[in-house]
Amino acid sequence: MESLILELSTLFIVGFIGALTPGPDILFVLRNTISFGTKAGFSSLFGIFCGWLVFISLIYFGFAHLINGALPQGILSCIGGFYLFYVAFALLRKPKNTIDFH
């Protein structure tokens, strides 16, 4: 039990450090902090951290072995593709931002 706690705390630390390293994640956190304040920045950081924690936990507990076949990979690819089409369609339908500098 103690080794499990040690391993999970190590994963926690790795995920936290991964969220702080330079890259798209930290740029997202910086943008939200500068644009919307400290609370939004910490919320962004917490969301990224939780995502990495779930991702690392799924890998650690063997979820990658379950989706190793061709059928699960195809299903996940289709779900991901539909999600990308949904995001693209939502961005196309979004009204344009107009800025008046006068």
Structural class: mainly alpha
Count of runs of 4 or more consecutive helical residues: 5
Strand content: under 5%
Mean pLDDT: 83
How would you describe the shape?
Answer: flat
Write the layout of secondary structure elements.
Elements: H1 2-20, H2 24-36, H3 38-60, H4 63-66, H5 70-93
Helix pairs in contact: 1-3, 2-3
Write structural notes for this entry.
The protein is mostly helical and 102 residues long. Helix content is 81%, strand content 0%. Helix 1 (2-20) crosses helix 3. The radius of gyration is 19 Å and the shape is flat. The protein starts with a helix and ends in a 9-residue tail after the last helix.
Keywords:
102 residues, mainly alpha, 5 helices, flat
Short structural summary:
The protein is mainly α and 102 residues long. It has five helices and no strands.
